[in-house]
Design brief:
This protein is an alpha+beta fold and 200 residues long. It is built from three helices and ten strands, in the order ααβββββββαβββ.
Length: 200
């Protein structure tokens, strides 16, 4: 009988002293309330692994805009491993790199009409000739293409070789730049550029 009375009284004593599951539940409820009251504008979303960036400017008087995904080196071997040799590559991350010319131009000496194109690069083990390709299909929404996986050679409008330059310092995030005379690509220790001029 004494044991039965003790078993009935013990939970009441425990509850009145603030112990046990009741207190844990109260703390959990308070914590939940605090989280719910946090202003959502103060919470920062994690930075994307390969942010979408843009480069714009005038090249020899021609408006050029580039939209690309910018991956990071992160200590990886890029050329020949992460980006294989002799395989067409999106020249960035995720969606295809898109380059837009505001008027008819000459790219590396060849005629290209005003408009937007996918820009691909094919790195090669030979350091003196990498290939740049411009292709009509650049949009996932408009053309159903993503990266270089859906590249259709018959849609290429221009292919030309360039000689990359390898420096000493690592460019951590892939970068396109629009300069006064050229479009420049840089990532890891490699950089390459090509000339854009107005069509006369």
């Amino acid at each position: 009988m004494k044991k039965l009375v003790y078993l009935l009284i013990a939970p009441a004593i425990l509850f009145s002293c603030g112990g046990g599951d009741a207190a844990d539940s109260a703390e959990a409820t308070d914590t939940t309330a605090q989280v719910e009251n946090v202003d959502s504008t103060t919470l920062e979303a994690p930075a994307p692994k390969s942010p979408r960036l843009q480069a714009s400017g005038l090249v020899n008087g021609v408006q050029v805009d580039i939209d690309y995904g910018s991956p990071y080196v992160k200590g990886r071997v890029i050329w020949g491993e992460l980006v294989p040799y002799d395989k067409i590559w999106r020249a960035g991350a995720n969606d295809a790199t898109a380059i837009t010319f505001g008027s008819d131009v000459k790219v590396n000496g060849s005629d290209v009409k005003a408009g937007t194109y996918a820009l691909f690069i094919t790195p090669k083990a030979s350091p003196d000739k990498w290939t740049v390709t411009l292709n009509e299909e650049w949009s996932k929404e408009l053309h159903g293409v993503w990266g270089a996986y859906d590249h259709k050679p018959e849609k290429d409008v221009l292919k030309f070789d360039v000689a990359p330059v390898f420096g000493e310092e690592v460019v951590e995030s892939l970068t396109f730049s629009v300069t006064e005379k050229t479009v420049m690509f840089q990532w890891e220790k490699a950089s390459l550029s090509f000339e854009v001029k107005p069509k006369k």
